[in-house]
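In the lab's daily routine, each protein ends up as an entry in a very long ledger. A line of letters takes care of the sequence, but it says nothing directly about the fold. The fold becomes a row of whole numbers, each drawn from a learned catalogue of backbone shapes. The protein below has been through that process, and both of its lines are reproduced in full:
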Amino acid sequence: TEGLSGKLKELNQEAVRIAKSAVGDKALVAGDIGPTGEMMSPIGSLSPELAEEVYAEQAEVLAEAGVDLFSIETMFDLEEVKSAIRGIKKVAPGIPIVAEMTFKKTARGFFTMMGVSPEQGIKGMLESGAEVVGANCSIGPKKMVELVKVMRGITNSWIIAQANAGEPRLEEGKEVYEVGAEEFAGYALEMFRAGADCIGACCGSNPEFIRLMVEKFKGIDKR
């Protein structure tokens, strides 16, 4: 955002402070890291080395602020997510990393916008050092159930799945998502049965989605 480029340390530290004060000892606080918005070379100008430096800078601030883990989300370029993992490992080697790429379903299966398959993504993230791998955003919960089955067929490692609340549509100039919290919670249970170990919600969700998912999982034996 314009005018905030010099406040990386201040903004990240304050975000962690607020999150920790809100959850106390009831939950872990993740340092959330997303794509830079730049295209990686050779298509764009961002080199793996520079990307690694950029991610290391933010990761160091988040680690100093006391995050319990890192969450790398919504990645579509395998080289960028690998750079992010390397950057984190360089400055905070003892903090676990959750890494997620974002896939769309095509006639040939699931792929990121850069053509990365789930197999390429999962294996690349694990080989780079992520402890938990998976997918978020881009698709609704029904397709995420399908994708979880694909990912579980690739690895025995922990898998995370965070779908959108369905496909968005415009109503009176506002973006509205088609899947409600109750329906989403039902799909979350399907994701678990398909092999997901960690389940969340992405675009179109709110705290009610999380609350109902927690309710849905009461009495379910965890893996």
